[in-house]
Design goal:
14% strand, binds zinc ion, Rossmann fold, two-stranded antiparallel sheet, seven-stranded mixed beta sheet, alpha/beta
Length: 278
């Protein structure tokens, strides 16, 4: 990130720390419903020009997984998660016309990164998005990594076209460490990390947001620390494995190998340099 963009990220994070509201158009770009709650939670209320972009509907297309989650089919699961998300976005005042979700299934975003990156770039351009909040590339969830990659590709493509891309900031989610799963922290801590502890009123809103995602109750119990951690996005090479090869999602995703990810990442870079061929 160039120093001007890094400076802009620090300004925005400082405003959030001081609880100054921010009117410029910004986009929260995340993998699935509930990431907005874990990543920024009640701080979204301060972003009065916020758009919410979800890259998947959060429902697996594999019927066994859907039934294990207590739903008859993917459509019902996706509908339930969309209803929960709508309640949450109402709580933080993100208007319906500023909400966008891709019709992509859980764990499938990596298969569509060029298409997503192209759509995000067009969205950032037409909505004049100045800043983006998204995921770090840490191997926590396959769709988180796809989201980080698609945002980076969208911004790089804008730069190639001579446009000003938005400044990108990351929110802390989860990653695999030597001692197991770590939540709400970045895998590598740095001097630019900002920690924003919620006050009582904010913690209450965050609890309401967590409760609204009723279908995710078991998982969201791991994300109850009343805090958001942010940082300017570093430059990644998505063609290298995340988090020094410690990939949490491989514990439960059997049909995607590290080689599948690397191939998808290479395709995304291929799109960046030759978009007309994709
Ligand atoms: Zn997530």
């Amino acid at each position: 990130m160039c120093s001007a963009l890094a400076g802009r990220a620090h300004c925005i994070m400082r405003d959030l720390c001081a609880r100054r509201s921010f009117d410029a158009p910004v986009a929260l770009v995340v993998a699935h419903p509930d990431d907005e709650t874990i990543g920024l939670g009640p701080l979204l209320k301060l972003l009065r020009g916020a758009h919410a972009v979800h890259l998947t509907d959060g429902a697996r297309r594999d019927v066994r997984c859907v039934r294990a989650a207590g739903f008859r089919n993917s459509e019902d699961h996706a509908k339930a998660r969309a209803t929960e998300l709508a309640r949450v976005l109402d709580l933080v005042n993100i208007r319906a016309e500023r909400r966008h979700s891709f019709p992509i299934g859980d764990q499938d975003a990596f298969r569509h990164m060029p298409t997503i990156a192209a759509a995000l770039g067009a969205y950032f351009e037409t909505q004049r998005i100045e800043a983006v909040f998204t995921h770090p590339y840490e191997g926590g969830h396959l769709d988180h990594d796809a989201c980080a990659c698609a945002v980076a590709m969208a911004c790089a493509r804008m730069e190639h076209r001579g446009l000003h891309p938005p400044v990108v900031m990351e929110m802390a989610f989860y990653y695999e460490s030597e001692h197991g799963l770590v939540t709400q922290r970045f895998a590598e801590q740095g001097d630019d990390d900002v920690e924003i502890a919620f006050n009582q009123a904010e913690a209450l809103i965050r609890d309401q947001m967590l409760a609204a995602h009723a279908s995710q109750t078991a998982i969201l119990g791991l994300f109850r620390e009343p805090v958001a951690r942010l940082r300017p996005a570093p430059q990644y090479d998505f063609r290298r494995p995340p988090n020094r090869g410690h990939i949490f999602y491989q514990r439960f995703i059997e049909d995607v190998t590290p080689a599948d990810w690397l191939k998808a990442a290479h395709d995304a870079y291929g799109w960046l340099h030759n978009p007309q061929e994709h």
